Amino acid sequence: LFIYPDWMDKVRKEALLLTVPAAVTCQRSGQRDGQVMLFGFSDTIYGMGSFYKNGDKRTANIGTGEVAINRYLADQAGVREGDRITLRVPNPSFGGDFLFLFGEDSSVESTFKVRSIFDNTGLGRLDLEAKRTPSSSVFMNMDDAQDLLDVGQKVNAAVFQYKNRDIVGTDEETRFLSRSEELLDIIVGAESIELVIQPSPRGWSVLTSDRIFLQGHLEPALGATTFSWSPTLTYFVDRLVGPNGADLSYSTVSGLDFARDRKAFEDWRWNGSSPRTEPQSGTLQALVNNWTANQLGIGPGDTLTVEYTTVNDRYQLEKGSVDLVVVGIVDLAGKAYDPSLLPPIPGVHDTVSCLDWEAPFPMDLQTIEDEDVAYWNAYKGTPKVWIDLDTAKDLWSNPDGNWTSARYYPHGDTSNVSLEYFDDAVTASDAGISIHASRADALATSDPLAIFESMFLAFGAVLLLAGCLLEASAFANLARSRLREHATLRALGLDERGLIQVMLVEGTLWGGIAGIIGVIAGAGLGAGLVGALNTVWADAVEGTTIPLAIEGGSLWLALGLGLVVTIGTLFLSARKAARTTLSTALADRAGTAVDVSPPISRQRAILLALVLLIVPAVAGIFIRPSSDMGGMALFFIVGMLATLGGVLLAIPLLERIESRVKRGGLIAPWRMGLKSLNRRPRRALMLVATFALVAFAVIGISWAGEIEIRYAGDLQADQTGGYDVLAETWVQVGGDLKDDPNAPPGDWTVTPVRVVGHQGGTCSNLNARFPPRIMGVPDEFIENVTVGFRNSEVGGDRETWRSLTELTDDGHVPVVVDYNTLVWVYGGSIGDVYEVDGDRGRVYKMKVVAVMETSIFGGSFLTGVDMAMRVYPDSALYTYFLFDAGSAEPAKLAKELEEAYADMGLDARPTVEVVQENLAYELSFLRLFQAYLALGLIVGALGLGALAAREVQDRRREIGGMKALGWPKGKVWQTFLSEQIWIALTGVVVGIIGAAIAIVAVSPAWLGSVTAIYFPGGTIAILALAMVGAAALGALLAARDAARIDPSEAMRSMQ
């Protein structure tokens, strides 16, 4: 492929790999990792990347018997450099010959020394799958890998790198890969799927395969290349029993499309007076050759019993039998004599005598009689019985295929029996060869979880609103302090519009400088959050490192929004300042006139407050959110409106408190602080609102976390689906694990699930992978699983699960998805339809018919096993298992399962651990956002400190008067400090009230239970102390400065 001109033009570098799943056990630590990828490679890989150790580029100087591993595996299995590890990998022959390998070890193992441990970067996180999390990886020389797997010089992967990587994900790359697939189809031929041609003694040829069974889609493609074609399914049955009890052991029965065969080949040679009747399509009718009829004493109209062993879709051996009605007898001559129809079963088809059979499946050679030996010696594997092909498929098809051979005449020269004749009918995908745009897939699946955008937007809005209120207060303070200056400009002839423009130009300049500082601070915040996610909050996401990505567009957007908010807030303050009359301004000799008028009358404030408190609360009680996103939105809307309503009530209440304590009840500094606060109702309103909104948001997040923890035990059983242990393997497991001789003892049971792909995006995986893992669940799962649904188009829980076994009314494959995956990762909802690329080049539509509750099946689309096989007949494998531990302890059973099925790479975990881990991820997110909201405390503290400092300058005359009247320094700074504490304390109380109203009003309808009405008392206490303390610290320096002012200088101060 690499020598084609198009490749030489586009591709810079290629490298061959041999990669298989593996399991690793460290001999020193005894720890194990069952989900490892082994990479055999040569030095050509270094042209595409490097290994890294402590950030330095390295090459892997691996000798014979040595391996290198990445840091992720070292941490998982407790491996150090110099340790010896046991490496277990799949038996390469096990996959293709699965049907005939019962009893053989499905894996091989060997011991290697760990020479180097590399960082999880560069080649250290090499992965052929696009996913966020690094794989546990082992690297070894190609020769060692090929020897371990005993595959000669074969490899199973080739990676390449473009000369121009800008084409990744573009139409140009799509066209290039499409042409490459066409080239592969030309290169790949019949030998790639192990087709073989067996000459028939009748002059035609028989096409069969070393794989024994062939996939159904190949039959018409191969047949189209021939002149005459007649497919068959020839099966090796256990016994034929006649009506009088006579029997024959181990015979071949062939299914045939009689109509097609009659057109393609000669007629049967009918025996004597036998009716010339062939079996009808879809019936249990049979033709029997004359030798068999004589041995069993059977004739037309008699019943023939066929006993056989089949392999079900779980690769379990099952005994069966069928009664056939004989409709004709044919002579063992002509096309009835054709030993080449027997598939090339190892140890059977090429033996001289049936007594020499060494079949790869269970056989009892003691049942073979002399007549059986005689038939084999004379006719080999010639079928004794002929039945309809569709009937044979119904009886004996298995996951590997539904036909075994075909008789044919080629076009033209009938002596031409070369396999090249069929090359054009075999595609690369038939041979399991495909091209994947790995880099494009990685980029396409690297979108962050929608939860980050939504949550940061929601909580950022709270901080933004708080910041705007502080900014408005600061601008109002600034405008008031410059009242005389503005009046002078007005007196000199500057009109109102001109004054506003002057203030806007000045403010825009400072706003631009502040915006640049804010952008730098924002980048620092992003770096801090990323650093936290990579260290102290690493549990919030899977993987090792999250890179910091700051784009120029986002920086310009942040600067622009900052300027817009600044200019808008400044405009409102400037317009008010410009409307101040000259006489009012000149009358204020100190230039510090205080606007004591409230922003709204007391009656209107109380009326509006009651509306904001009552109407949203009532709406929250009666509105039932259909999703968590809707519930969260309703919670914050109700809470914020109630908080603002509480702020409007707080101001007149503070005035009432002041009137009650004028004659005592509070020490003088605290009374003065409260009085000073009430003298500036507009400023008080904005500052109290700032603290109240931040308090509400922090309490809301804390409440959500407490609810998660409080009900974790109740939800645990539901989230496990009723199963105790889940396990995954890296090879498809045949048969019932319970029947394995190495199976742990006990009354445990297992439910196998067919799986395609890897787990998709979850709360622990910042990677919206599409398509996600598809899980085909069997009937026993559907009838027993305990996971319920939040919403369903079908009906009740059990009816919804049962609906997964059939197509929807509009012909779509039904799937169910858990809420977190559907909403937060894929941004979808019930009823959405997703197109997926199935096997064999077909595209299918999957429809979300229900939304599951949170469960261990997060990151997956679940459907019935038959539906999964409809879409993925080749790649849906039994690699996922759910266990009911019975009387066993789940943790102990998980460990025993890993030891018993180590050859399959089985990795088991108690489902409770998975639930707890998922809960830890969600709580990590909540802690992250709590910390993000803690910025509100910092903003409030810094803002309050800045305003307090400005207040000291504006109120120098007031301070001088206090000291002139004999107030000591201690009481002066206590007065200023108490004012800020009153603000913070009032804000906290209002925020608590707003959160309480939201919890009581929204949580029962949202979460479905009045028990969700829960108040995080500990968090509220800590919050109150933190916010009041932050306010005190922010104002402390300003208060101390106020206490140090000289009264004589203050009284002379004009500004």
Give a structural overview.
Among the domains are: 12-163, no CATH class; 190-426, no CATH class; 482-581, no CATH class; 721-911, no CATH class. The strands form four sheets. Strands 19, 20, 21, 22, 23, 24, 25, 26, 27 and 28 form a ten-stranded mixed sheet that branches. A six-stranded mixed barrel has the order 1-2-8-5-7-6. By secondary structure, the protein is an alpha+beta fold. The relative contact order is 0.09. It has 31 helices and 28 strands.
**Principal-axis shape:** elongated
Low-confidence spans: pLDDT under 50, at least 5 residues?
Answer: 95-103, 589-593, 761-768
Q: Whole-number radius of gyration?
A: 40 Å
Average residue pLDDT: 81
**The biggest beta sheet, please?**
10 strands, mixed
Into which percentage range does the β-strand content fall? 15-25%
The residue fraction in helices comes out at 40-55%
Question: Topology of this structure?
Answer:
Elements: H1 5-10, E1 11-26, E2 32-41, E3 51-53, E4 56-58, E5 66-70, H2 71-77, E6 84-90, H3 92-96, E7 107-118, E8 136-141, H4 142-149, E9 157-162, H5 171-187, E10 195-199, E11 205-209, H6 218-223, E12 226-241, E13 247-256, H7 258-264, E14 285-289, H8 290-296, E15 303-311, E16 317-330, H9 370-379, E17 385-388, H10 389-396, E18 405-410, H11 438-444, H12 450-481, H13 483-491, H14 496-534, H15 552-578, H16 582-587, H17 602-622, H18 628-660, H19 668-679, H20 681-710, H21 712-719, E19 725-728, E20 749-756, E21 773-777, H22 779-784, E22 789-792, H23 797-802, E23 813-818, H24 819-825, E24 833-837, E25 843-852, E26 860-864, H25 865-871, E27 877-884, H26 890-900, E28 907-910, H27 911-954, H28 956-964, H29 969-1007, H30 1017-1043, H31 1047-1052
Parallel strand pairs: 2-8, 5-7, 13-17, 14-16, 21-26, 23-25
Antiparallel strand pairs: 1-2, 1-6, 1-9, 3-4, 5-8, 6-7, 10-11, 11-18, 12-13, 12-15, 12-18, 14-17, 15-16, 19-27, 19-28, 20-21, 20-27, 22-25, 23-26, 24-25
Helix pairs in contact: 12-15, 12-20, 12-27, 14-15, 17-18, 17-29, 18-19, 18-20, 18-29, 19-29, 20-27, 20-29, 20-30, 21-27, 27-30, 29-30
